[in-house]
Design goal:
Elements: E1 2-6, E2 13-23, E3 26-32, E4 38-44, E5 47-50, H1 58-75
Antiparallel strand pairs: 1-2, 2-3, 3-4, 4-5
Length: 77
């Protein structure tokens, strides 16, 4: 699936691909940038956490989580 949001750094439109992913037995999502860089997020206690990268802008993680929230409610993501 694709989500479109504003990049918190510069308000530019950002199109990201979201793919379901198993992360050590937990249901997560792989977020893929247009340049194919990616990272995995897992929802824990209602909050999205980045699992496989040292630093991802927390504002971006929050924006992605908000974009995923309506979909997660209906798609079991």
């Amino acid at each position: 699936m694709e989500i479109v949001l504003k990049d918190p750094r510069n308000d530019a439109e950002l199109r990201l691909t979201v793919e379901p992913e198993d992360y050590n037995g937990e249901q997560g999502v792989r977020i893929v940038y247009p340049n194919k860089d990616s990272f995995v997020m897992v929802q824990k206690n209602g909050d999205w956490e980045v699992m496989d990268e040292d630093f991802v802008n927390p504002e971006l993680v929050d924006a992605i989580g908000k974009a995923l929230h309506p979909r997660a409610s209906y798609n079991s993501i």
